[in-house]
Amino acid sequence: MGIFGMLRRDDTAKSTARDAMREARTEKAETSPNGAVQRMIDTVRDIGLDGKLAYSSAADVARKAQRGRARKRPEKAVRRIVRRHRRGVTAGGFLTGLGGVVTLPVLLPTNVMEFYIQATRMVGAIAVVRGYDLDDEEVRVRVLATLLGEESGDVLRNIGLSPVAGAAARGVAGRLPASPHSAVVSAVGGRLIRRFGLRSARLFGKAIPGLGGVLGALSDRKQLNRIAEAARKGFPQVR
Q1: Do 149 and 223 touch, CB atoms closer than 8 A?
Q2: Distance in angstroms (rounded) separating the CA atoms of residues 65 and 135
Q3: Mean pLDDT (10-residue bins), the chain, 239 residues
Q4: What phi and psi values does residue 52 have, to the nearest 5 degrees?
Q5: Has UniProt tagged this entry with the keyword Transmembrane helix (predicted)?
Q6: Which of 230, 170, 228, 223 shows the shortest CA–CA distance to 194?
Q7: What are the phi and psi torsion angles at 149 (to 5°)?
Q8: pTM (2 decimals)?
Protein backbone atom coordinates (compact mmCIF):
# COMPACT_ATOMS: atom_id res chain seq x y z
CA MET A 1 0.00 0.00 0.00
CA GLY A 2 1.52 3.35 -1.01
CA ILE A 3 1.44 6.51 1.04
CA PHE A 4 -1.35 8.02 -1.07
CA GLY A 5 -3.56 5.00 -0.39
CA MET A 6 -2.69 5.01 3.29
CA LEU A 7 -3.49 8.71 3.72
CA ARG A 8 -6.78 8.45 1.85
CA ARG A 9 -7.85 6.06 4.62
CA ASP A 10 -6.42 8.19 7.42
CA ASP A 11 -9.08 10.70 8.43
CA THR A 12 -6.86 12.24 11.12
CA ALA A 13 -4.08 13.00 8.62
CA LYS A 14 -6.54 14.52 6.14
CA SER A 15 -8.15 16.64 8.83
CA THR A 16 -4.74 17.84 10.03
CA ALA A 17 -3.75 18.84 6.49
CA ARG A 18 -7.03 20.71 5.90
CA ASP A 19 -6.68 22.61 9.19
CA ALA A 20 -3.03 23.43 8.46
CA MET A 21 -3.91 24.80 5.03
CA ARG A 22 -6.55 27.06 6.55
CA GLU A 23 -4.11 28.20 9.24
CA ALA A 24 -1.39 28.82 6.65
CA ARG A 25 -3.59 31.38 4.91
CA THR A 26 -3.44 33.52 8.07
CA GLU A 27 -0.61 35.23 9.93
CA LYS A 28 -0.98 32.68 12.71
CA ALA A 29 1.23 30.18 10.87
CA GLU A 30 4.14 32.62 10.98
CA THR A 31 3.80 33.56 14.66
CA SER A 32 2.62 30.39 16.41
CA PRO A 33 4.01 26.92 15.64
CA ASN A 34 1.69 25.21 18.10
CA GLY A 35 -1.45 24.72 16.01
CA ALA A 36 -2.44 22.74 12.96
CA VAL A 37 0.76 23.56 11.06
CA GLN A 38 2.80 22.18 13.98
CA ARG A 39 0.75 18.97 13.98
CA MET A 40 1.13 18.55 10.26
CA ILE A 41 4.90 19.05 10.28
CA ASP A 42 5.20 16.59 13.18
CA THR A 43 3.20 14.03 11.19
CA VAL A 44 5.29 14.61 8.07
CA ARG A 45 8.51 14.20 10.07
CA ASP A 46 7.42 11.10 11.98
CA ILE A 47 5.93 9.16 9.06
CA GLY A 48 8.53 10.33 6.58
CA LEU A 49 11.53 9.44 8.74
CA ASP A 50 10.25 6.61 10.94
CA GLY A 51 7.61 5.01 8.71
CA LYS A 52 4.10 3.85 9.55
CA LEU A 53 2.30 0.55 8.96
CA ALA A 54 3.40 -0.69 5.52
CA TYR A 55 5.11 2.61 4.69
CA SER A 56 8.89 2.13 4.91
CA SER A 57 11.12 4.36 7.02
CA ALA A 58 13.85 6.51 5.51
CA ALA A 59 16.49 4.14 6.91
CA ASP A 60 14.80 1.14 5.24
CA VAL A 61 14.67 2.99 1.91
CA ALA A 62 18.37 3.85 2.24
CA ARG A 63 19.31 0.22 2.93
CA LYS A 64 17.39 -1.00 -0.11
CA ALA A 65 18.95 1.65 -2.31
CA GLN A 66 22.43 0.54 -1.22
CA ARG A 67 22.03 -3.04 -2.39
CA GLY A 68 24.29 -4.51 -5.02
CA ARG A 69 26.84 -2.25 -6.66
CA ALA A 70 25.46 0.78 -4.85
CA ARG A 71 26.84 -0.50 -1.54
CA LYS A 72 30.19 1.14 -2.27
CA ARG A 73 28.79 3.82 -4.56
CA PRO A 74 26.66 6.16 -2.43
CA GLU A 75 25.82 8.47 -5.32
CA LYS A 76 24.24 5.57 -7.19
CA ALA A 77 22.09 4.88 -4.13
CA VAL A 78 21.13 8.56 -3.93
CA ARG A 79 20.01 8.51 -7.56
CA ARG A 80 17.88 5.43 -6.86
CA ILE A 81 16.25 7.16 -3.91
CA VAL A 82 15.43 10.29 -5.91
CA ARG A 83 14.01 8.29 -8.83
CA ARG A 84 11.77 6.26 -6.53
CA HIS A 85 10.29 9.30 -4.85
CA ARG A 86 10.02 11.24 -8.08
CA ARG A 87 7.74 8.50 -9.40
CA GLY A 88 5.68 8.62 -6.21
CA VAL A 89 5.02 12.36 -6.16
CA THR A 90 4.40 12.43 -9.91
CA ALA A 91 1.63 9.87 -9.50
CA GLY A 92 0.18 11.74 -6.52
CA GLY A 93 0.15 15.07 -8.35
CA PHE A 94 -1.47 13.49 -11.39
CA LEU A 95 -4.26 11.83 -9.38
CA THR A 96 -4.94 15.03 -7.44
CA GLY A 97 -5.45 17.18 -10.53
CA LEU A 98 -7.04 14.57 -12.78
CA GLY A 99 -10.64 15.34 -11.84
CA GLY A 100 -10.24 19.11 -12.05
CA VAL A 101 -12.17 21.52 -9.87
CA VAL A 102 -14.69 18.87 -8.79
CA THR A 103 -12.21 16.65 -6.95
CA LEU A 104 -9.42 19.13 -6.20
CA PRO A 105 -10.77 20.48 -2.87
CA VAL A 106 -11.22 16.91 -1.61
CA LEU A 107 -7.87 15.50 -2.74
CA LEU A 108 -5.61 18.51 -2.24
CA PRO A 109 -5.11 18.13 1.56
CA THR A 110 -4.07 14.50 1.05
CA ASN A 111 -1.75 15.55 -1.78
CA VAL A 112 -0.09 18.15 0.46
CA MET A 113 0.56 15.59 3.17
CA GLU A 114 1.55 12.88 0.70
CA PHE A 115 4.04 15.10 -1.11
CA TYR A 116 5.86 16.28 2.00
CA ILE A 117 5.95 12.83 3.61
CA GLN A 118 7.56 11.43 0.48
CA ALA A 119 9.94 14.39 0.26
CA THR A 120 10.89 13.98 3.94
CA ARG A 121 11.57 10.29 3.47
CA MET A 122 13.67 11.02 0.39
CA VAL A 123 15.79 13.61 2.21
CA GLY A 124 16.15 11.33 5.25
CA ALA A 125 17.24 8.40 3.08
CA ILE A 126 19.81 10.57 1.29
CA ALA A 127 21.15 11.67 4.68
CA VAL A 128 21.49 8.05 5.81
CA VAL A 129 23.33 7.07 2.63
CA ARG A 130 25.67 10.02 3.13
CA GLY A 131 26.49 8.84 6.68
CA TYR A 132 24.14 10.75 9.02
CA ASP A 133 22.16 9.46 12.00
CA LEU A 134 18.41 10.09 11.84
CA ASP A 135 18.14 9.64 15.61
CA ASP A 136 20.10 12.87 16.01
CA GLU A 137 17.77 15.80 16.66
CA GLU A 138 19.86 18.19 14.60
CA VAL A 139 19.73 15.90 11.57
CA ARG A 140 15.94 15.71 11.84
CA VAL A 141 15.73 19.49 12.05
CA ARG A 142 17.94 19.82 8.98
CA VAL A 143 15.76 17.36 7.07
CA LEU A 144 12.69 19.52 7.69
CA ALA A 145 14.52 22.68 6.66
CA THR A 146 15.58 20.99 3.41
CA LEU A 147 11.92 20.78 2.37
CA LEU A 148 12.21 24.47 1.48
CA GLY A 149 14.69 23.64 -1.26
CA GLU A 150 17.05 26.47 -2.11
CA GLU A 151 15.80 28.50 0.88
CA SER A 152 16.90 25.86 3.41
CA GLY A 153 20.34 27.39 4.02
CA ASP A 154 18.86 30.75 4.95
CA VAL A 155 16.40 29.10 7.34
CA LEU A 156 19.15 27.14 9.09
CA ARG A 157 21.30 30.25 9.47
CA ASN A 158 18.36 32.16 10.91
CA ILE A 159 17.95 29.60 13.69
CA GLY A 160 21.67 29.44 14.41
CA LEU A 161 22.81 26.41 12.43
CA SER A 162 25.64 26.65 9.93
CA PRO A 163 26.01 24.33 6.91
CA VAL A 164 27.42 20.85 7.54
CA ALA A 165 30.97 20.64 6.22
CA GLY A 166 31.14 16.92 5.58
CA ALA A 167 31.51 15.92 9.24
CA ALA A 168 29.24 13.37 10.85
CA ALA A 169 26.28 14.95 12.62
CA ARG A 170 26.34 12.55 15.55
CA GLY A 171 26.87 14.13 18.94
CA VAL A 172 26.29 17.71 17.85
CA ALA A 173 22.99 18.30 19.63
CA GLY A 174 24.76 20.73 21.95
CA ARG A 175 25.01 23.18 19.05
CA LEU A 176 21.26 23.33 18.65
CA PRO A 177 19.42 26.52 19.55
CA ALA A 178 16.59 26.38 22.07
CA SER A 179 13.46 24.67 20.70
CA PRO A 180 14.97 24.01 17.24
CA HIS A 181 11.99 22.08 15.94
CA SER A 182 9.57 24.86 16.83
CA ALA A 183 11.91 27.36 15.21
CA VAL A 184 11.93 25.35 11.99
CA VAL A 185 8.15 24.96 12.05
CA SER A 186 7.80 28.71 12.45
CA ALA A 187 10.21 29.30 9.58
CA VAL A 188 8.99 26.72 7.08
CA GLY A 189 5.53 25.47 8.03
CA GLY A 190 3.36 28.18 6.54
CA ARG A 191 5.55 28.58 3.47
CA LEU A 192 5.48 24.87 2.71
CA ILE A 193 1.73 24.66 2.82
CA ARG A 194 1.06 27.88 0.95
CA ARG A 195 2.94 26.41 -2.00
CA PHE A 196 -0.01 24.05 -2.29
CA GLY A 197 -2.64 26.67 -1.44
CA LEU A 198 -5.74 27.17 -3.53
CA ARG A 199 -4.48 30.62 -4.49
CA SER A 200 -1.36 29.18 -6.14
CA ALA A 201 -1.20 29.91 -9.85
CA ARG A 202 -0.51 26.28 -10.71
CA LEU A 203 -3.90 25.23 -9.39
CA PHE A 204 -5.74 27.22 -12.06
CA GLY A 205 -4.44 24.59 -14.45
CA LYS A 206 -5.32 21.80 -12.05
CA ALA A 207 -8.95 22.92 -12.18
CA ILE A 208 -9.18 21.62 -15.76
CA PRO A 209 -9.97 17.87 -15.83
CA GLY A 210 -7.26 15.85 -17.53
CA LEU A 211 -4.90 18.77 -18.10
CA GLY A 212 -4.92 19.41 -14.37
CA GLY A 213 -3.48 15.94 -13.79
CA VAL A 214 -0.57 16.58 -16.14
CA LEU A 215 0.18 20.00 -14.67
CA GLY A 216 -0.11 18.69 -11.13
CA ALA A 217 2.32 15.86 -11.88
CA LEU A 218 4.85 18.19 -13.50
CA SER A 219 4.59 20.74 -10.69
CA ASP A 220 5.09 18.18 -7.91
CA ARG A 221 7.96 16.57 -9.81
CA LYS A 222 9.71 19.92 -10.28
CA GLN A 223 9.37 20.82 -6.62
CA LEU A 224 10.73 17.44 -5.53
CA ASN A 225 13.76 17.92 -7.78
CA ARG A 226 14.49 21.22 -5.99
CA ILE A 227 14.30 19.48 -2.63
CA ALA A 228 16.55 16.64 -3.85
CA GLU A 229 19.17 19.16 -4.96
CA ALA A 230 19.01 20.89 -1.58
CA ALA A 231 19.43 17.51 0.15
CA ARG A 232 22.53 16.71 -1.91
CA LYS A 233 24.06 20.06 -0.89
CA GLY A 234 22.83 20.05 2.69
CA PHE A 235 24.07 16.55 3.55
CA PRO A 236 27.57 16.19 2.08
CA GLN A 237 29.21 12.77 2.27
CA VAL A 238 30.68 12.00 5.69
CA ARG A 239 34.38 11.21 5.33
Answers
A1: yes
A2: 20
A3: 55 70 60 69 91 89 87 88 93 72 66 89 96 92 90 81 58 54 73 58 58 78 93 90
A4: -160, 130
A5: yes
A6: 223
A7: 65, -130
A8: 0.82
